[in-house]
Amino acid sequence: VLASASPSSAVPSHILHEVFGYAAFRGQQADIVDHVTAGGDALVLMPTGGGKSLCYQVPAIARHRAGQGVALVVSPLIALMHDQVGALEEAGVHASFLNSSLTGEDAMRIEREMMSGRLVMLYAAPERIATPRFLAQLDSLYERGLLSLFAIDEAHCVSQWGHDFREDYLSLDVLHERYPNVPRIALTATADELTRADMIERLQLQDARVFISSFDRPNIRYAIVEKDNARTQLLRFIGDEHEGDAGIVYCQSRKKVDETADWLVSEGLNALPYHAGLDASVRKRNQDRFLREDGIVMVATVAFGMGIDKPDVRFVAHLDLPKNIEGYYQETGRGGRDGAPADAWMTYGLADVVNQRRMIDESPAGEEFKRGQRAKLDALLALAEAHDCRRVRLLDYFGEASSPCGNCDNCLSPPATWDATEASRKALSCIYRFHQNNGQRFGAGHLIDVLRGKVTDKVTQYRHEGLSTFGIGADLSETQWRAVLRQLIALGHVRTEGEWNTLELTASARDVLRGEVQLLLRVPSETKGRSKGSRGA
Ligand code: ADP
Ligand code: ZN
């Protein structure tokens, strides 16, 4: 029964029409499918929504129809496995998954289907692959020529440099070592150069053909604004530009999701919350409404979005800073999948920088891993502080050269900059003077008061009006000082420590103090210092 189908039914374009009902392959899909169907290895870098699934599904069907047996698809996302297998079965393709959600009986039944070679595709979680039992089954299939293809989805999980490292992916090199003749296709939406090199090495894809699709999403307009009053800014953004549109608002914590959703509702918007702390039934109901109804604003943590394929999301807003550029790109990428204009809008402030740095510092991870995370955060902060084209920077991060896009905030209204070198030196000197005073440390609020020469209780208590740096920064507003500090922390010249986020100089602060580093800052769009300090610019 295995190879009974007529030869034409195994032709990729035929499968695309007949099984999936699509008229044509998109972008590089055709090349990838041909290469893999013919038995070649491939590394596919394609942005979210680009159509990665067909790149292994069509070859799997083609090779099955040519009598080559079962394709193994490794995926870390159980929800995604579910959806894909459901869709394939509906299209008449015999597919299944093996993961921890199954009963023993179901698992046995699926294994039988696999061993008979009748199954076209088997989805499995990475932790299953390297188990002796599963390898013995693969051995048997291999010996009978019934192992047609390995597809490794979310392949960046194999890299410590990726944002989503999974230990279990490391054992996937066994596939190549044990079954050298089976073609492999590894796919990911997010890989900077370091991660890419790591994937090739760890998955032994040195001989694989690499397919890189452009990561550009030209219809998405990127904007990053300084945080002033984030809620009000959000409401104004939605009211001015997206009344009645579907959108996603990302927040970092569950609590903030709940509060923000409540608040938007009280302001008359059609908003729903989504995070892992909600009942599964509530999550499902909210997600279904978001997908089916028009104009719902989903307020969510990053738990929302994986595998959500809603084409007409008109905006993605971030009230908190994502962890890194991969996260930012993936989350904003959920807007405008239909190709019509969409906004990626983020508010960003000093507290975001401090929080993200602290989360890394306090995580139980090893030092090397933390260093990687810090480097990734720095790249995101540089994007947030940029005064040139956001898209150029974003694409550059993914290894793609481009020119100013004309469709980001910085291109559309180039921000004015001011030379903050002198101001930075003043701030650093003041932190240094605090240290000299019995090694005392203070947070940003107090530092700014001292710089601006404000006599507060705390100033009096510590006799800081006597410091040589007291009042040397009266020419700048509080907002400007916050921007200076944010940049100093973002650039790593100042660190924050402990529960009170006290400020501390790092080794590189010395270069700034010596005047060896020039700092150019954006002029804040809305200056709302609490006092009437003049704008030094
Ligand atoms: P990715 O995994 O890269 O994020 P998917 O494989 O989920 O992307 O595909 C995204 C969407 O595009 C899906 O709805 C899919 O059905 C659709 N799609 C993919 N390829 C094609 C094509 N050649 N023609 C039409 N629609 C396609
Ligand atoms: Zn631009």
TrEMBL record:
Q: Which SMART domains does its entry note?
A: DEXDc, HELICc, HRDC, RQC
Q: Name the chemical reaction catalysed here.
A: Couples ATP hydrolysis with the unwinding of duplex DNA by translocating in the 3'-5' direction
For activity, the cofactor(s) needed are: Zn(2+); Mg(2+)
Give TM segment ranges: none
User: Which SUPFAM superfamilies does UniProt cross-reference here?
Assistant: HRDC-like, P-loop containing nucleoside triphosphate hydrolases
Per the UniProt record, which EC number(s) apply here?
A: 5.6.2.4
Q: Does the keyword Calcium apply?
A: no
The answer to whether UniProt assigns keyword Coiled coil to this entry is: no
Question: What GO terms are given for molecular function?
Answer: 3'-5' DNA helicase activity; ATP binding; DNA binding; four-way junction helicase activity; hydrolase activity; metal ion binding
Q: Which GO terms describe its biological process?
A: DNA recombination; DNA repair; DNA replication; SOS response
Any one GO CC term of the record? replisome
InterPro entries named in the record: DEAD/DEAH_box_helicase_dom (IPR011545), DNA_helicase_ATP-dep_RecQ (IPR004589), DNA_helicase_ATP-dep_RecQ_bac (IPR006293), Helicase_ATP-bd (IPR014001), Helicase_C-like (IPR001650), HRDC-like_sf (IPR010997), HRDC_dom (IPR002121), HRDC_dom_sf (IPR044876)
- Keywords for this entry? ATP-binding, DNA damage, DNA recombination, DNA repair, DNA-binding, Helicase, Hydrolase, Isomerase, Metal-binding, Nucleotide-binding, Zinc
Family to which the UniProt record says this protein belongs: Belongs to the helicase family. RecQ subfamily.
Q: What is this protein called?
A: DNA helicase RecQ
